[in-house]
Design goal:
It is built from no helices and 31 strands. By secondary structure, it is mainly beta. A hairpin with a 7-residue loop joins strand 8 and strand 9.
Length: 422
């Protein structure tokens, strides 16, 4: 009996599906074989199914028209794919004030399948009590972990700083090229130190005038008053000869801010012009000198009587002659005797037959006889006018003595003669 059988397969086992004709002999049964192939591909188990199709001369069993043979795959499953190496990055939390905790978040992407130990380095800018150096952070399988770096709150005013954490290379991960380090700013919360006190300004003032033999008094002031005794340089000078010790000296200004400086004078028996003692603050360390009160002067009055007029030296001037081509007429002014004090006399060239700017240059001024001097000269410049037939000409040198304390005026004028050279 020819029976039609349909063959199908579940899976890919090299079965040739389709219709087959099977001949059932008179014995009543026959065996049908369907070959499979053995490949090396790992795949799900499958099956081969044969189904009796309707045909001529037979009917198909209602309950056993189909039969299935299971086919088991014999190839091993491939190993699971290797897990990707996590890339580790770090992000910074908000900025903090000193004494706060700097917060950082370390992330592994993809999340590790087991706890991952990451090496980091902690550094600080400034001095905020951070424990710097290497440490380790463990990232759980969730993929990220937060850790903190403590700072200390001191009382020192300093520049704001920061805490920086850098991910170091290590085993089982790579380091992010763009987020390998993160920084949290640290703000100092201490008040700035007060500025150092300004150097005191030192000034000096003079006491009342004195008579020779007295003591000149000066007051030296430092403003503001110094926190510790302040050494100030002072220079003493005198006008006249009053026995003062001149030159440089130092004065110590106490913390009260003022000190008195005294300069003694000597009382001699010589009549002399009044004078003075001057004290000048010199530049030094730890102070500045007042621009308006760096110098002070105490006047000194001479207390010796002037000599009587009969004993005072007298001043006279000699006539003088010069040719108009000589350039100048030179007059000699004489003091009859040595004076114990300086003597000053004023002079002026007054016209006669010679006229200023035509024959001579007008001249005026003063001459001073220092103690010990008895002779001085005055020159009046001449003009060579080249005028013929004018003859000799004259002008007058006039003396004026305004202070007769130490001298008298015996001869107050001299004639200057200009001889014609044309």
């Amino acid at each position: 009996l020819d029976v039609t059988v349909a063959v199908t397969a579940a899976g890919d086992f090299g079965v040739s599906p389709g219709s087959h004709t099977v001949t059932v002999p008179t014995s009543g049964s026959v065996t049908l074989t369907v070959a499979t192939t053995n490949d090396s591909a790992d795949e799900a188990d499958g099956s081969v199914t044969a189904t009796v199709a309707a045909g001529s001369g037979y009917t198909v069993s209602a309950s056993a028209a189909t039969a299935t043979v299971a086919v088991q795959d014999d190839d091993p499953a491939p190993p699971p794919p290797l897990a990707a190496t996590p890339e580790v990055s770090i992000a910074a939390g908000a900025d903090i004030g000193e004494g706060g905790d700097a917060i950082f978040t370390v992330t592994a992407d993809p999340a590790p399948s087991a706890l991952l130990t990451v090496d980091v380095t902690v550094a600080q800018s400034g001095d905020f009590g951070v424990t710097a150096g290497a440490r380790q952070v463990t990232i759980p399988t969730t993929g990220s972990v937060t850790f903190t770096v403590a700072t200390a709150n001191d009382s020192t005013d300093e520049t704001d700083g920061s805490v920086t954490v850098t991910v170091d290379t290590g085993s089982g991960y790579t380091v992010s090229a763009s987020a390998a380090a993160a920084t949290v700013a640290v703000q100092d919360d201490d008040d700035p130190a007060p500025p150092p006190p300004a150097d005191p300004e030192v000034s000096i003032t003079a006491g009342s005038g004195i008579t020779e033999g007295g003591t000149a008094v000066f007051t030296i002031t430092a403003d503001p008053a110094p926190a510790a005794p302040l050494t100030v340089d002072v220079t003493i000078a005198q006008t006249g000869d009053y026995g003062a010790v001149t030159g440089s000296r130092t004065v110590t200004v106490p913390t009260s801010g003022t000190v008195t400086l005294t300069v003694a004078t000597a009382d001699d028996g010589a009549d002399e012009a009044d004078g003075s003692i001057t004290a000048t603050i010199g530049a030094g360390s730890g102070y500045t000198v007042s621009a308006t009160a760096g110098t002070a002067t105490v006047a000194i009055a001479d207390d010796d009587p002037a000599p009587p007029s009969s004993s005072k030296p007298s001043i006279s001037v000699d006539d003088a002659t010069a040719g108009e081509g000589d350039g100048a007429v030179e007059f000699t002014v004489r003091l009859s005797a040595v004076s114990t004090a300086a003597v000053t006399v004023y002079y002026a060239a007054n016209p006669g037959t010679a006229m200023p700017y035509a024959d001579y240059l007008p001249d005026w001024g003063r001459i001073t006889f220092a103690a010990g001097d008895t002779s001085k000269t005055v020159q009046v410049s001449l003009i060579d006018d080249r005028t013929s037939g004018e003859g000799d000409e004259t002008f007058v040198l006039k003396l004026i003595l305004s202070d007769t304390t130490h001298a008298t005026l015996a001869d107050d004028q001299a004639q200057g003669t200009i001889t014609d050279n044309d």
